[in-house]
Amino acid sequence: MPEIRVSVRIGAFDLHYEGSQAFFERVVDPLIARVVPYPPTVSPQASLATQGSLASSVGPTRAAEAPAAEPSGPGSSPEFRAFVKRLGPEAAAPDRQVLAVAFYLWQYEKRDEVSVEDIAACFRSIGLPPPESVRDLLEDLSERLRFMAPGPHEGAWTISTKGVNYVKTRLMAND
């Protein structure tokens, strides 16, 4: 499969991808489609690249502007953006994204428990809509996978040692 290069700007968030076109089409492109509520502006080079004449050297380039979220609440710090950039391809599934956000809140914001609202706020802080049914994902991560555990309060969850280890060993990209 050909290698491609893609740059995307959505509000204050920049994404630069270089790698397999298959991975881009399977993982990155659907994420971008969820973020951009309207068709992105595609450069003239992108149309040439998709026809194959420049695919290996230039690749598709997309640029889109969306309003930037105001920095406040969980996940609004620049450290959260840096954390998201360190996530590897294993973190593409919604349940793994929720687990990664819970890990971030525990590790970097020192929160012993997280709520659906905390998770949703983190997604919104980087311009992404939260996954559908965050509560169901948290319950599944708790009941079936044991990566999370019910928290001490109603509607709260805590990340388990198993969840922490999974994020550190499987979801973080090798630097």
Structural overview:
By secondary structure, the protein is an alpha+beta fold. Helices cover 43% and strands 17% of the residues. It contains seven helices and seven strands; from the N terminus they run ββαβαβααβααββα. The protein has helices spanning 21-35, 44-50, 78-86, 94-107, 116-125, 134-143, 161-171; strands at 3-10, 13-20, 41-42, 62-63, 114-115, 148-150, 156-159. Strands 5-7-6 form a three-stranded antiparallel beta sheet. The protein has a two-stranded antiparallel sheet with strand order 1-2. A two-stranded antiparallel sheet has the order 3-4. β6 and β7 (156-159) form a beta hairpin. α4 packs across α7 (161-171). The longest helix has 15 residues, at 21-35. It is globular and about 50 Å long. The two termini are 24 Å apart. The relative contact order is 0.13.
Concise summary:
With 175 residues, the chain is α+β, with helices and mostly antiparallel strands. The protein is built from 7 helices and 7 strands, in the order ββαβαβααβααββα.
Largest sheet: 3 strands, antiparallel
Distance between the termini: 24 Å
Structural category is: alpha+beta
Order of helices and strands: EEHEHEHHEHHEEH
Count of beta strands = 7
- Provide the helix percentage: 40-55%
Q: Per the principal axes of the C-alpha atoms, what is the gross shape? A: globular
Report the sheet-strand fraction.
15-25%
Taking all Cα atoms into account, the compactness measure Rg is 17 Å
Number of helices: 7
Strand order of the largest sheet: 5-7-6
| Poorly predicted runs | 38-70
Average pLDDT rating: 78
